Structures are given as C-alpha cells and as structure tokens.
Amino acid sequence: MPAPRSRAFAQVDVFTQVALRGNPVAVVLDGAGLDDAAMQAFASWTQLSETTFVLPPSAAARARGADYQLRIFTPGGELPFAGHPTLGSCHAWLEHGGQPQSAQHIVQECKKGLVTIARQDGRLAFAAPALARTAPEPALLAGVLEALSLRPEQVLAAEQLDNGPQWLGLLLDSPETVLLLDPDHARLKALKQKVGVAALYPAEHMPALVRRSSREARAFAQGASAQGAARPAVQLEVRAFAAATGVNEDPVTGSLNASLAQWLIAEGRLQAPYAANQGSCLGRDGWVHVSADAQGQLWIGGHTVGCIRGSVLL
Predict the structure, then answer these.
(1) Which residue spans within the chain are E strands per DSSP?
(2) Known catalytic residue at 109
(3) Do 145 and 153 form a contact (C-beta atoms < 8 A)?
(4) pLDDT, tens digit, 9 for 90 and up, residues 112-121
(5) Which of 50, 109, 159, 237 is catalytic?
(6) Considering the entire predicted model, what is its pTM?
C-alpha cells in the first residue's frame, strides 16, 4: 500500500446560507492514485452521508465538456450520482481554483454520466438527471409502511424513483405526518430500501418551521429567526431515510428532491418554481430551490457554504 500523502481537502455545507444548518460533504480535491478501497475507507471514517473525490475527467468526457470527474461514496458504498455532493464539490473545486471550459456552466463527470451545473441567483444548481419511475412492489411498500408506522390512508401516492440513486418516494397526507415520523431504521435497513417522504403545504401556509408541532422544532425556529436567516416560502416538506447505505436520515438530499420534483410535477401536484425544506428533525434547516428553464429542464439549486479548508493525509 503506498504511503499516504497530503491532499487538498474541503468540507462544504450544502442547501443552506448559514453554516452548520445544511448537509455537509467532505471533498478530497485530489483523488489521483486512490483505489476504491481507500476511498471507501475514508468515506466510512468521515461518517458523513457522502464523501467525494475529485479526479481529472476521462478523455471522452473532457471532449464532451466535462471539467472534472467525481467519485461519490456513502459510509456503505459508492453512488452513481448524488445532489448535495455535486453542489458542494463544485463549490470546493471552484474555490480551489478550478476553471470550467464554459463561461456559462460547469460539467461534472460521474458514474451516472455528465451533469451540468449552473450559477443561479447566488446559488449553484444542477440539471436534474433523467428519472425512471415504476410502481413499488406491494410487499415492499407494506414493509416500508410498517417500518414507518404509517397507515395506508396516510399515503397519497407511492413511486419507485431512480435517477442514479434509487428511492421509494411516498407522498403523505400532511407535513405534520412527515415531521412526526419515528422510523424503525433497523427494519428499513433489512428491507434494503432508501425511502423519501414528502408532503405538500397548503398555499396559505405559515413558514414551515413555525407550524411544526414538536417542541424541538419550534425552539430551533425561534433560534434561527433570531439569527436573521431569510426563509423562502416552502411548498414541500421532505425527509430521507437511508439506513440501507449506512445513514439513518440524510439531512438534505439533492437526488431525492430532484426525483420528487420530476415525479410530482409530472403528476400535476406541484409547479416549478418552488422551494422544499428538509432537515429540521436533525437540527438542520435545508432549502432546496426547484426551477425550470424554457426547455422544461428542471434545476435543483441551493446555497453552499465552505466550512473547512486544508489538507488530509491519504
């Protein structure tokens, strides 16, 4: 095994304007020479939902405009694509001096393919990858509902969603139902199924964090308001349970929000632009901004905040 060497490193908080309120990603800005086992070992050690490794793009991808290649690992394995690591790694790459080929956008190569990233209103946003949707297996759905202690009448719709990462998407009857879930993570892990739950707010809703019924969420809302953090109007409340990949609950999840957007907009339940909130049950305050361009491409955006910059021995 080669001796460790110093490699540029950053940790970025994603989907937040306030550091420590979003979803952090660890970014090794020079992954050259690291094999899969070394990458996985470091990702397991960080214990963040995702750790990424930046590499030069392949020759074929570079010819198609790719600026860098990204490998994305959870504590439990590699992902073909993930949203918050895409935005956080792009932030770190640009801050480290990365120069995109195009003045209009940045292009990331990953196992899912090429992902386009744009700057939008002070945020970074990625073009939502193509989504495959299928009906869930009845036995799997029943097992997931049992693990979440949900009654069938609380589920308005269910769909298997695949844009690289695979999620069982559940649209629930109210944001309060989403926020009060106390999953059996061991059972979800045994089912080997990541689950994303969401619920729509009524048009006349108050700001999400103020409405919540749990004492902890109300206290967090008051603390965040005291800091003067701006809050967009939220239309969707989201939680992501990923025990199958070694993370019981992900704070703020770009790939899931991309899948939910494509599904719910296609079904006529939502319209872009809108904002989704995620993470309050973990003491976070993540905001995901969903927009559509003139061609109908959905963009999943969020603010990014650098928290750690230095080097790591790997």
Answers:
(1) 6-14, 23-28, 51-55, 68-74, 77-79, 106-110, 113-120, 123-127, 132-134, 155-162, 166-172, 195-200, 236-242, 247-250, 274-278, 286-292, 298-302, 304-313
(2) no
(3) no
(4) 999 999 999 9
(5) 50
(6) 0.91
